[in-house]
TrEMBL record:
Protein name: RNA methyltransferase, TrmH family
SUPFAM superfamilies reported in the protein's UniProt record: alpha/beta knot, L30e-like
Record's keyword annotation contains Transferase: yes
Family in the record: Belongs to the class IV-like SAM-binding methyltransferase superfamily. RNA methyltransferase TrmH family.
GO BP field: methylation; RNA processing
Signal peptide: none
Alphabetized GO MF terms: RNA binding; RNA methyltransferase activity
GO cellular component: cytoplasm
Alphabetized InterPro entries for the sequence: Alpha/beta_knot_MTases (IPR029028), MRM3-like_sub_bind (IPR053888), Ribosomal_eL30-like_sf (IPR029064), rRNA_Methyltransferase (IPR051259), SpoU_MeTrfase (IPR001537), SpoU_subst-bd (IPR013123), tRNA_m1G_MTases_N (IPR029026)
Organism annotation: Amycolatopsis pretoriensis
Keywords in alphabetical order: Methyltransferase, Transferase
Amino acid sequence: MDPFTERTPRVVAARKLTRRAERDKTGRFLAEGANAVEAALEHGTVHELFVTERAAEQHADLVDAARAAGVAVSPITDRAADGLSETVTPQGIVAVCALLDRPLDEAVTPDARLVVVLVDVADPGNAGTVIRVADAAGADAVVLAGDTVDPHNGKCVRAAAGSLFHLPIARVRDVPAALSACSAAGLRTFAAHGYADAELDRVDLTEPTAWVFGNEAHGLPADVLDRTDLAVRIPLYGKAESLNLATAAAVCVYTSAMAARR
């Protein structure tokens, strides 16, 4: 069959998924690139796979896996791939997937030992990187609370590098509800806060823990800090004034993960 162009109705419909309103309306999002597509085929629900001729040759295993799973594989032109991509150099392979977020009570359960909560995190690259860190550290769930960015945003999906499909993701506007769910599941809630009295290397992290991280510019608001069990800061031994969100999250989450495995 001839490849779909940028004017083909299915490509036009998929292109609209770069907007959050359309993602929420249809319950679908785009996962671009070999890592994301592979994870989607293994752990998610894929409705369609768009692929250029070149990408089909480079990733024949993914195309075969999609067909074996009964997924519609649609060839597209390079120009159509450009329209589906939010990157400067499109990879030519894009999956249309079902949204991944779950209800809060399904994501945060009494069996959980490590959960990450993001509050009002604005940058999708940061959110995706933290999701990847949480996955690598063996976290049980990530909760995106308040005004945190949509995890199905293209930049977030790319930054997560497939991890978005590996662990439960919950979205909830109500920040107190997110913290209450963690406490009800038996998790101690630790707020990462640059001006906290308690230092990370002096805190007992062997108990089930939920790490709470705030906005990149403003951190956690006072009312959220008050609702957590303990505010914790990462000691800085050099001259840097602070760590960025993704780095701070990696330090805190991995410290907990290693403490639980000793």
